[in-house]
Model the fold of this input.
Amino acid sequence: MWITKTELKTHMAVSSIDVITDGDDAIIDAAIDGAVSECKGYLKSYDADAIFATTGTARHSLLLTFCKDIAVYHLIALSNYKADIEFRTQRYNRAVTWLKGVQKGDITPDFPASDSETAGKILYGSNPKREQHY
Done:
């Protein structure tokens, strides 16, 4: 796992996570797996397998923060009506906006490049214009 349950404590109290999931770690694992999969979907131009194979301090800190935001957002969906859903929605939207910026090429994080130069990109163009003179 790229993120552990205890690492989510920077975004939500572990006791709150236990209350929401009723102590079922499978729910937490599913939320984390969903968040990682969602992030991978935006990183087609990069070697996502290499990015998410990193551990500890080698992980990209901003991507880690946003991935935790997304995982907690998925957990909040299971919570009661008193949870601060608006705040979590804002954090989720910020994470997705950043990932879309990376996907479009507006943001260039220091991720390892994909093996394929055209992975996730559409190339377009034409031959140089020719002029005929008679």
Observations:
- The chain has a mean pLDDT of 85.
